[in-house]
C-alpha cells in the first residue's frame, strides 16, 4: 500500500488509487479545504509536494492551476491525484484560518471530471 507523509501530521498507509484529497481528509483527518467538492474548479485543495510528485496531471488540473495563477513547481490539486505510490506533501490550504464555515462539499471516490492525463 502507498504511504502518504503529511508534514507536521504523520505518515499513513493509503488504499492504492484513492484520491489524495480523500486520504488527507478521511484517512489522516486533516482540515484540508476542498470547496468545490473535488472537481478542479477552486484550487482550495492545493498541496505542495515535498517528494513523490506524480509525473502526470489531469488536463483539468493543468488548466485550473494556470487560470487561477497558482501553477508553481510542486503545487498540485489534491482532488486530481490518485495515491498510486509513496508521496510526501505539505498542506497549503486549510480550514483553520480560512474564515470558511466548513472544508467543502462532499468528494466522489473517482477523480472528476473524467481524467484526461497530460504531462505536467
From TrEMBL:
- The record lists the organism as Crateriforma conspicua
| Record-given protein name | 2Fe-2S ferredoxin-5
Keywords recorded for this protein, A-Z: 2Fe-2S, Iron, Iron-sulfur, Metal-binding
Please give the cofactor(s) recorded in the UniProt entry for this protein.
[2Fe-2S] cluster
Q: Name one Pfam family in it.
A: Fer2
User: Which GO MF term does the entry hold, naming one?
Assistant: electron transfer activity
Instruction: Give the family, as the similarity comment puts it.
Output: Belongs to the adrenodoxin/putidaredoxin family.
Gene Ontology terms describing biological process: P450-containing electron transport chain
Record's InterPro entries? 2Fe-2S_ferredoxin-like_sf, 2Fe-2S_ferredoxin-type, Adrenodoxin-like, Beta-grasp_dom_sf
CDD domains, alphabetized? fer2
Q: Tell me the segments the record calls region Disordered.
A: 95-120
Per UniProt, residues of the 2Fe-2S ferredoxin-type domain are 2-95
Amino acid at each position: 500500500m502507498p504511504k502518504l507523509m503529511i508534514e507536521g501530521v504523520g505518515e499513513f498507509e493509503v488504499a492504492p488509487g484513492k484520491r489524495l484529497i480523500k486520504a488527507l481528509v478521511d484517512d489522516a483527518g486533516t482540515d484540508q479545504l476542498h470547496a468545490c467538492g473535488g472537481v478542479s474548479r477552486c484550487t482550495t485543495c492545493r498541496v505542495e509536494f515535498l517528494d513523490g510528485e506524480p509525473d502526470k496531471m489531469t488536463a483539468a488540473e493543468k488548466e485550473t492551476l494556470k487560470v487561477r495563477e497558482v501553477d508553481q513547481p510542486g503545487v498540485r490539486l489534491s482532488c486530481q491525484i490518485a495515491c498510486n505510490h509513496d508521496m510526501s506533501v505539505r498542506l497549503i490550504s486549510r480550514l483553520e484560518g480560512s474564515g470558511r464555515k466548513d472544508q467543502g462539499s462532499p468528494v466522489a471516490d473517482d477523480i472528476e471530471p473524467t481524467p484526461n492525463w497530460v504531462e505536467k
